[in-house]
Amino acid sequence: MAPFFTEIDENIEYVEKEEEFEEELTNEDIQFKSLPEDERKKRKLALNNLDFETISSTHLCSYA
Prior knowledge:
Layout (H helix, E strand, L loop, with lengths): L26 H7 L3 H12 L16
């Protein structure tokens, strides 16, 4: 299924390159990560434009 897959007899230890998995952070990212966790959650929710006030009858259920 995977075209570049090669079978091995035993595990091979992988040594990552120095900056292989590091991501570059912008000033905005650094400021975001320095905020308290609850403030980060609030900002993420604000970006999603979620509507908490509208009640849809198709999403209601009853436990009778």
